[in-house]
Structures are given as C-alpha cells and as structure tokens.
Design a protein that fits this description.
Elements lengths: L10 H11 L18 E5 L4 H10 L3 E6 L3 H10 L4 E3 L2 H8 L5 E4 L6 H10 L4 E4 L6 H14 L3 E4 L6 H11 L6 E8 L28 H5 L26 H10 L1 H6 L7 E5 L14 E6 L8 E7 L18 E7 L2 E6 L7 E3 L1 H9 L15 H11 L7 H20 L3 E4 L4 E3 L2 H4 L12 H4 L1
Parallel strand pairs: 1-2, 1-4, 2-3, 4-5, 5-6, 7-10
Antiparallel strand pairs: 7-11, 8-9, 8-14, 9-10, 11-12, 12-13, 14-15
Length: 454
C-alpha cells in the first residue's frame, strides 16, 4: 500500500473520495460564452514537445502566460506570444493569473506533471497534460479523482487516441471482424534508440556540469527528492531513461502503442505484470531489452487478455503474411479468433487486418466494410479545446487516461524491480513486491507536496 504522509489523505478517505467523484458534472470556464469565443491559455513547459502543444492550442486563442524553468525557452515564447506574461515557477504563475486564465496546459518532464496539474485542477481550470499522465500510481489516481470531483474538462496528450486509425480498430473489433481477442503484442525501439534515448544504460548519475545561464535547475528538479546536479544527460531532451524524471521506453511509447488495444478491448486494470530483463535491475536508469507481460482478467463475457510489451532491442515475430522486418519505432498486433488487426509504427496511423489476403479482400469489398459508428475527433489538442467550449467530455480525459497510465506505470515498476507486480486496483495496493509497493507514492520534497500546492 502507499505510505501515509502528512500531505496525503488516509487510504480509506482517499478511496471514498475516488468513488464519489465520478458523478460530478463538467464545468465550463466562467469566460466561455459561446463556442467560438477565444480561450485564455496558460502553458507550463514550452520546450520541444511543449512548444508543439502550445502552438497547436494557441491558434484562435489568447496565450496569457507561459512558464518554463529555462530562460532560453521563454525568450522564444516572448517573440511568438508578445502579450504573454513569462514565468519560471508555475506555482507563482498560476497564483497570479488564475483569474485571467480559462485553461492550463502542461508539457514538462514526467516527474513534474502531477504538481502542476494538481494545482491547476484545484483552481478549477480545465487541464491538458502530456503523456504519461503522472510519474506515480498515487498521482494518477489522485488527478483522476480531483478532475472528476471538480467536474473539469481534461485531456492527456496521447495523440494517437484521437486518430482515425485508433477509432477504426475499435470499430473493427466491436463489429466482430476478428472475433474475441486473448493476446496482444506490442513493441518499440525505445529505450535502445529513438528521441530522448541514447541506448547507453547508465548505472551512476553523471558528474554535475556548469549550469547554463538562465536555467533554474532547482525548479527543473521540482518534487524530486534526489537533488542531482545539472547535466546534459538529463536536460533538455534525455531525461526519459532516468527513473527520477521519466518512465523509460514504456512510459514514453506505451501511452501510444498500448493505448489502442487497451481502449478497443476495454481492458481495465491488470491483475499481474511479469517482466523479463535483458540486463540487470537498475535503480536509477532503464535497462534495454525488457519484455513485460500484462495479465488482464475477463471482463464480463470477454475472455482474459495477455498483452506482451517488447522494448528495443527485443522484438516479437511479424504477424502471418507480413514481412515487416519490424523496422522503425514499433507496432501492435491484436490476435483474434479469426485473424487479427495490426499496425506498424508507434501510433495506429495505418491499421490493417491480417493475414494479408484478408486485408486485401476487405479493402476490395467496399460495400461490406464496417460502418463508422464512433464519433470522430479533430486531433488531441482541438478535441480538448472544443470540449471546453461545449462542456463535453474529451476523448482521452483523465477518467480514461488515469487507468491507462496506471497500467503503464505498473509495467515500469516491474522493470525497475525486476519482479512480478500483483495489483489490486480497488485498494491501490501491490503485494509480493515490497520494492514496487514503496514506489506507489514516493514522497515529494518540501514545497512540492499536495499541502503546498492546494
């Protein structure tokens, strides 16, 4: 179970609040008077992915404030958004602009998601958070509960969930094209390679380097208890493999590649997560080549599902009738009773049926294609903004993104400990793995705990 601290409610109180929160209605920002009115946005984290998120949401809206602990990033934002007030500390920003802000976006490293989102939600602001939603299981459950209790529009930035490919896969499965599914296979080239990963497994923290001008390293560390010195091995782009800051290859790509079968099959929470490590257990950095197996129980009449995740350089075999060679970033295979569904790449941009002959026959027979029964979106960012304006639920809101993130994080705990994780989602408990249980809710350092952010 998670450790009790002075900054967190008791488990009994927490679980009661979690159950009660789900009935809360969505609340519109006070300034939203019509579907076409501009929203006043405040953004936290504007480098790299954050810049893409910010600029995707800025069109047709007002950016009133931008926060980043790196002054070089703020200088860029000042040129693009001259009317925005600039901050390095999001706590100060949210306190000062809360009455001028309709919604808040968060695109920081994983370990900083919770504190910023917790503060924004407590202020009653619709909130967008990059994937994975949080860095720990307790954080994911807390944000889900808080967003529901406040009745706020939320969104996690797993772009593939808003794609046509993801929707098609769910429609194909629901229409019975492949029958019931008992096995799913997913893979990625991370952490052996890809954006933010060098493939080098580190067993010690690097020696501190001179701090770049304009970078507030203490703010970048945020809630992290280990006060490691600045290094370019962490910032600006290589923090993901380090457990203190990121969630490894699984936290990076799993929210894309696992998302689609998780949603299509309504998988819910796994009961058990097993791991096969290609390297040694590493307390500070992700190893390469892990294979993680998630065991999901039956859901009503739907059978149990085994989902197997391969991280680079580990690779599964290609599906029958395909000669992919499994290049690039990854892919997914849903194995059904009557064939299956697969896609190459981290997101379901081009899903196909297999064996290949069945896919070719399906494409040729236009008159018997599965009808479009699910609503379409216009991308993850626009979906969130439209949901705010219209008082509707977004496609990857925290009621969905929270459980998905919990599943992803259970896999990271299996990798971090090198042991099986047995999970009781209702009680928020891990049994049989004390090392993983201690990581359900790592305590934040002073100034970053929930009592400091409310």
């Amino acid at each position: 179970m998670y450790p009790a601290t002075v900054s967190h409610p008791s488990r009994r109180t927490f679980l009661k609040q979690s159950a009660a929160a789900l009935a809360a209605p969505l609340i519109l920002p006070k300034s939203v008077l019509g579907a076409n009115e501009k929203l006043n946005l405040a953004w936290i984290g504007a480098g790299n992915m954050g810049w893409g998120d910010l600029t995707s949401c800025a069109g047709g809206n007002n950016v009133v404030a931008v926060c980043d602990c790196d002054q070089r990033v703020l200088d860029r934002a000042a040129k693009e958004f001259p009317g925005a007030k600039l901050y390095q500390d999001f706590r100060k920003m949210l306190a000062e602009v809360r009455n001028r802000t309709d919604a808040v976006g968060i695109s920081t490293p994983d370990h900083s998601h919770f504190a910023a989102a917790y503060m924004a939600l407590n202020m009653g602001k619709p909130t967008y958070v990059q994937k994975p939603l949080t860095h720990s299981l307790w954080e994911a459950r807390t944000l889900r509960q808080l967003a529901a209790r406040k009745g706020l529009v939320t969104q996690m930035g797993n772009q593939g969930h808003a794609s046509e490919g993801a929707i098609l896969i769910k429609e194909w499965y629901q229409a019975g094209l492949i029958g019931e599914v008992r096995e799913v296979i997913v893979w990625t080239d991370r952490p052996q390679g890809g954006w933010g990963f060098t493939g080098q497994v580190r067993t010690e923290y690097p020696q501190p380097e001179p701090l770049p001008a304009g970078l507030d390293w203490d703010l970048w560390l945020g809630s992290c208890q280990d006060q490691v010195g600045f290094s370019r091995a962490f910032h600006p782009t290589r923090w993901r493999p380090w457990w203190n800051f990121g969630c490894g290859g699984l936290g990076d790509i799993g929210c894309h590649t696992i998302d689609t079968p998780y949603w299509a099959l309504d998988l819910g929470a796994p009961e058990r997560v097993e791991v096969e490590l290609k390297g040694a257990v590493n307390p500070i950095h992700t190893p390469n080549g892990s294979i993680v197996t998630f065991h999901f129980p039956a859901r009503g009449k739907k059978p149990p599902v085994t989902l197997r995740w391969y991280e680079g350089p580990s690779r599964p075999p290609a599906p029958q009738g395909y000669d992919w060679g499994l290049p690039g970033e990854g892919g997914m295979i849903m194995v059904g009773e009557n064939g299956g569904i697969c896609h190459a790449g981290m997101r379901p941009d081009s899903p196909q049926l297999y064996p290949k002959a069945r896919w070719e026959a399906y494409r040729a027979n236009v008159g018997q294609r599965v009808p479009k029964t699910l609503p379409r979106t216009h991308g993850i960012h626009r979906d969130w903004l439209e949901a705010i304006r219209n008082g509707k639920k977004s496609c990857s809101d925290f009621s969905y993104a929270g459980p998905l993130t919990e599943t992803i994080l259970l896999g990271t705990l299996a990798i971090r400990t090198g042991q099986t994780v047995r999970w009781n989602a209702e009680k928020l408990e891990i049994t049989g793995n004390p090392a993983a249980a201690k990581l359900i809710n790592p305590e934040a350092r002073a100034g970053w705990r929930t009592k400091d952010l409310a």
